[in-house]
Amino acid sequence: MTNNMLTLKREEKGQKKDKNYVDFAVFEIENLRLRTVIGFNDWERENKQDVIVNIKAKFKVGKAAQTDRVEDTVNYKTIVKQVINLVEKSDCNLLETLAQMILDIVMENPLIVWAKVKVDKPFALRFADSVSIKLKATR
Known about the structure:
This protein is α+β, with helices and mostly antiparallel strands and 139 residues long.
């Protein structure tokens, strides 16, 4: 679709004719390092272990780019606080479970249209830097 066609579609919807109009944005939270109980072996249940969380999400920008108000957008600081609280209190056997719980928090925000979560467990496997699980959700 050309820029002219996009402009016409916006005008039909009553949107401003603006070549810099933004519909969506993507935020990324990289290498959030946390500690939690994770694993199903006895020795893994005794002490908290490191996990590294990465989140990427696409969201509807709406009027936030014009208003410059956090109330009009996704507050990723709030999401990070919720993720930290969840992970530090969690007690999961599987990375898959922890990743799904994190993804659920991210997808709670109605402005988010898709999200990807990656959870790494460093040194979980001998001779490997880490093992990771990636999950994705779309609305």
